[in-house]
Design brief:
426 residues, 6-stranded antiparallel β-sheet, 22 strands, alpha/beta, 7-stranded parallel β-sheet
Length: 426
Amino acid sequence: MPVLRWPGGCFADEYHWKDGIGPREDRPSLINTHWGGVVENNHFGTHEFFDLCEMLGAEPYVCGNVGSGTPQEMMEWVEYMTSDADSPMANLRRKNGRETPWKLPYFGVGNESWGCGGNMRPEYYADEYRRNNTFVKNYSGNQIYRIACGANAGDVQWTEVRMERAGKHMNGLAFHYYTLSDGWPPKGSASEFDLREWAIIVQSAREIDRLIRQHGAAMDKFDPERRVGMIVDEWGTWFDREPDSTPGFLYQQNSMRDAIVAALTLHIFQDHAARITMANIAQLVNVLQAMVLTRGEQMLLTPTYWVFEMFRGHQSGTLLKLDGDCPNCEVEGISLPALSSSATLSEDGQVLLSFANLDPLDGYELEITCPHASATARLLTGAAMTAHNTFDAPSSVAPAPHECRSDGGMLRFAVPPHSVVTVTVS
């Protein structure tokens, strides 16, 4: 995991960082008004977050409180985290057990300020961003990549106003998009669905491509050199919570449909690598399109987890263009491209090809002209399009070796229905 974002979403703009430092028994509690109305005891705070990042080998991305906080609070938090001076906040950090400052590469100035972060107009947030960002300082050699709150889905006006009024003050502009079955609020089961529901979700996932193009064009008006990166720091599927789960906790299952959405979305991000600097699936554990589900001491890996694991070879590589013919499929009256694909050349000279079959009923035989001689393939699929892992059967959906024939500069392999296939060529 290269980057971990905290404490946002919506919770970020109610979070006051000083409540989460010092002895745990002395930390005040608060009500998490957004997610379940539960009492948050603040036992996981700044020190615990950076400890977790260090254990995971992930870079920290901290989201500051614009909605209910103050510029002074934000300024002091950055000083607490990153300053090596003999100063009040740095000394407070030392008192709490951390002598040296942390490296903080990414800082978000607010979260969803158009909604739960304050219901602000874009003009108002542009001024609030400029004000708060002024006090996000670079201490002790730490250089912060400053990320402004960007648009909700199709609100291109927000992007244009932000870029025009404050673009020169930011490094990145966030953008959030969730795959929904029928608009807001989320509805439908994550694991029990029919062919039409499959097609609607896949079509909804494809919509992010059009939105990235629209927001990218709006950014280009004011930033033709593309100095400001697009940061898709919340994305994923969103369905009804599972029956008998806690309201507000957003616990949902994860099926092969989610795996297809993950692969399709990551392919789209690859296509826009010139504009998208970073992308973060919204949640990791037990929430929305999670990588991991837990029950007590039990843990399982979801189909979405396995897509990310299979796609690791795409990271930090060079995008290659795939040319070819792709048929369409029609599912319950909805036309979809049958396949989604991408290719990457890694630094060590290997090529990773990845394919997602959006067709839940039919498979396809592929032939790819490739001058390399050696290829290995992996397949992720399940017995049905609704296949998912449970605590009683945690490996129902997991990658398996897949047949790939290499002959005369041609690769030949199958992409079964509702499946993800990767081919590594060396």
